[in-house]
Amino acid sequence: MSNKILLTGASGFVGRNILPILEKSYDVDTIGRKDGNTYVCDLSTASPELTDDYDIVYHVAGKAHTVPRTEAEAKVFFDVNYQGTVNLCKALEKRKAPKSFIFLSTVAVYGCDYGENITEEHPLDGTTPYALSKKRAEEYLSKWCKERNIKLTILRPSLIAGPNPPGNLGAMIHGIKTGLYASIAGGRAHKSVLMVDDLANIVPLCAAKGGIYNMCDDAQPTFGDLGILIAHQLGKGKPLNIPSWMATCMAKVGDLLGSKAPINSLKLKKITESLTFSNEKAKRELGWKPLPVMENFKIK
Description:
By secondary structure, the chain is α/β, with parallel strands linked by helices.
């Protein structure tokens, strides 16, 4: 496998963390909306005019971490995650086809709120705009790459840890920093987590082989473990714990208050039930060894 890569989403959380790692082994060009990218382009609305051919295309650009409140907000997921993929492929069609295409998808395509060691064989039952847009992009790429004899790798990472993370981990860090975070029922639920660095480390292992792979570390830490780790790095005490009986009472009140309540029975179940994914396929087929999150996660 040659060493010319086209990376999309280089300015985002994943992109900016994996770019320096990829640049140690590859000649990397980038596509992004901000100045400083090789190609400045918003893939959700346009196709860039590529001036070079690439051995590997790594499509990281995407939208996540928000819950849409309107149809217009929901549509943005499809504009970015699906149409952005189509527009990238249109640009690639004007050049020599890459040998390998790597797509950053998500475990959200499975549609699971809880479960343990969920494998790649699980049905794609996700119903959120995020999950549906990623699923649609996966389907498009499967057909597009097959028609052009391009090796397709679909990576489905779990919760991603790294410096200044967005989403749930970012919210947890902010909550602990401001003293507004509380652990529910001891934080015993296990969650699959992945070090962002591994999204770069896996490239030389998967690019020539292709396939669909869940990505997470082996430890499957609990919310409690993560909370204590973050609090320690912030110089804070152990997060406050809300016991099960109190959380249940709060959730029942939330059920009566409706969807705007900070907690209800469904949200409580999501918080207190484990949700883990199996990384065995990637380890077995690619020889991938994930970084232990609890040893490597630094919040800054």
